[in-house]
Task: structure prediction
Amino acid sequence: METETLHAVYDLMKWGPTSANSCPLRIIFVTTPEAKALLLPALSAGNVEKTRTAPVTAVLAQDMAFYDKLPQLFPHADARSWYAGRDAAIAEAAMRNSSLQAGYFILAARAVGLDCGPMSGFDSDTVNTAFFADRTWRVNFLCNLGYGDPAALHPRLPRLAFDEACEIR
Result:
């Protein structure tokens, strides 16, 4: 997969809103055999082959020090002080907003024509040690990216109807 495609995905997804423009999502695009060798031992058995053969696996992570970027990203208030030293607030905001951004990431990847395979099914500690040992990043989830074979892909699965998932009050 071309590096330009990955840049295009990021350049689309980065514009999605997050609370206080916190933008805690960090991404490692796993593309090389060496990087895949670090990732594969962390995966549950059902995810190994599809990850091994995917052109790219995005390790979608949350930066637990995202608040250090708030003076740049939210300059009109002292938003850094809302989080610094408040571990529970950091954890909640990092998970919520990195997940939100990861949803934008998947929509952006689909918009540029990629197929996406978001995954749980991995050992977080192994991924964190392999990729983030010297960083404040922690894995949220993984997403394989590529151009799937239409003959081998499952058809789109059903979704809940509005009345099953929503209420208007």
In short: Helices lie at 3-13, 33-39, 45-53, 70-73, 87-111, 124-132, 162-165. The two ends are 46 Å apart (CA to CA). Strands lie at 25-30, 56-63, 115-119, 137-146. The first strand starts at residue 25 and ends at 30.
